[in-house]
Amino acid sequence: YAAATTPVTFGLGVLATVGRPTRESVPATPSAVVLPATVALVLLGSLAFPWLAERRLSTSLDALTEGDARTGLAAAQDAGALDPLSIEPLLLEGTAYELSDRPEDARRAYQRAVRLQPRNPDTWYALGRFEYEQGDLARALLYLDRSWGLDRQSPETGPLLDRVREELSRSRG
């Protein structure tokens, strides 16, 4: 939106001032300089941070794909700092902890993702899949059922939920 409207707004401003007589300018006060500079920095940051976060997510995913959990974790944490409202950095952080054989840290990362976006079925699925792989079928059932309740069209939740129910049924006799 900003990329499309900024040039148009600038052009309209130039056209609106063409041919007007110039006025003598009043010396600038510090607040007259600081306020626009601050606004410009905030706008620049709001455009740059998501882009930088996406790059760090890509770096994390590449590193985790290659089995480099340490680099993947650092990049995921950087992405989370740049975009604190996104769950993707937390999910990649959990994966990195899993690869590093740090299950408690992985669980905390997945739980933070659930707290951040409790109505997102992907967060519940990630936590349920993790608990299933850790062998806690009761928790896995709870979390996967929540994911399924939020999105019954998910191609991955249904089969895993069925597998958990089947294993729980077998274990209870």
Description:
The protein has 173 residues and is mostly helical. The chain contains 8 helices and no strands. The model has no long low-confidence stretch (mean pLDDT 90).
User: Can you give the mean pLDDT?
Assistant: 90
* Percent helix: over 70%
Could you give the order of the helices and strands?
Answer: HHHHHHHH
The general outline is elongated
* First-last Cα distance: 59 Å
Count of separate DSSP helical elements? 8
Indicate the proportion of strand residues: under 5%
Judged by helices, strands and strand pairing, the structural class is mainly alpha
Show unreliable segments: none
Radius of gyration: 25 Å
**Total E-strand runs:** 0
Largest sheet: none
Topology overview:
Layout: H1 2-17, H2 30-65, H3 69-82, H4 88-99, H5 103-116, H6 121-134, H7 137-150, H8 157-172
Helix pairs in contact: 2-3, 2-4, 3-4, 4-5, 5-6, 6-7, 7-8
